[in-house]
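User: I'm writing a short report section on ligand binding and want a predicted complex to refer to. Could you take this sequence and iron/sulfur cluster and write out the structure as tokens? A short remark afterwards would be nice.
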Amino acid sequence: MSARTRGSSIPVVAGSEETGVVAGGGNEAGEKPPSKSAFDNLDEEPPGITGRRRLFAGVPDKCWNDWKWQFRNRITSAEQLVKFLPLSDEEQAQLRLVTELYPLSITPYYLSLIDPQDPEDPVRKQAIPSILEISMGCLGMEDPLEEKRHSVVKGLVHRYPDRALMVLTDICPMFCRHCTRKREWQNGGWVRTAEEISAMLRYIRQHEEIRDVIISGGDPLTLSTARLEEIIREVRAIEHVEIIRIGTRFPVVLPQRIDSALCAMLSKYGPVWLNTHFNHVNEITPEAAAACDRLLRSGVPVNNQSVLLRGVNDSVQAQTRLVQGLLRAKVRPYYLFQCDEVQGTEHLRTPVEVGVGIIEGMRGYTSGLAIPTFVIDLPQGGGKVPLLPDYVISRTEEELVLRNYQGKVFHFRNPRHHMLVEAPVGAAPISGFNFEPQETGNEDRISIRS
Ligand code: SF4
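Assistant: Sure. The structure tokens for the complex follow:
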């Protein structure tokens, strides 16, 4: 099938709604591009451009840049997928089998990033179901983080004292094969009802210790901007809530969603932070970088939480290219997660040592700003634990022997016992220091110990 014929197999939806979205969208004429492109250092043509030309040549810009068109035209079955990717009969049969348990959903935009000739393509591995999801399905847990147990009211997780997580929907534009919440996919796209959201808000109002509300899903940006604003406005009106965080993969899988209407709305309710989920440098396309740029210009800081995935980003080189691309897009690499112990994801999981080795391989060789914190999110809701390479060779009260990123050994005097200083009696306390009366032989002096 020719590229043009393939492209025309996607229904092109025209109409005033689409026109309205594009007119209000971030790609309208006159918008300034990001000051420094994420692609400035790459020689090759971005994969999305060739992919779109190859697969969706018949789709006009008006539709392609319309997130609602992209969303409506997601690829959700083996029959649709085979029109775009060469799949053997066996692969198609396997795909049907897997999707009975774990459905498939890919936006045309994200599909265009896949190199169809490369079975090991890092975008493909995140989006296209593998038979290993069910053949290794006996390993892992359905809900390893025990989010259901920590739900204080339906959809609201209150695990840490000062933070609460609002799960608004299970709908996502793209079903990531490594998703921690893939158990929810089988329940078929739900959105919390107005009553359920009211109950969540009531709980947050009643708990003054909650200063940080995370709005997540599924993907909360699948809600309309107007509905999202109703919820965010209510959260912002709660006096003790200091920050709002949004967890979304839209900048990666459907960046057209980050339009000017959404950005203008978010800018009214700051501080709003946005955490997204780039896993590979091939995802940092000009469109994705522009979406992040729009958020940043609206006063919404963007952080990235990637997941360490076998065959996708499990090497120092892949991670270095990812984090350097993120910094070029002005996105801070925040967390690198060990892939959770979720049923249906075992084939994508790596030994913990791989993550520690990657952090060690990057530290010193690229900016510290680029290095995310590698964490395990503990089962049973135990919380996140950071894992670091061990640079301490030995430690005494007086000295640490440390190795640097090149393996060179250094001695570092530990000042702990030399922090004893003397201050006159009655001196103002210094924050963080304990004043302990000591036997100094001098009645009008006390010692300060850190
Ligand atoms: S965007 Fe997040 S919640 Fe949605 S499928 Fe991907 S990992 Fe899961």
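A remark for your report: Confidence is low (pLDDT under 50) at residues 1-43, 430-450. Residues 172, 175-176, 179, 181, 217-219, 249 surround iron/sulfur cluster (CB under 6 Å).
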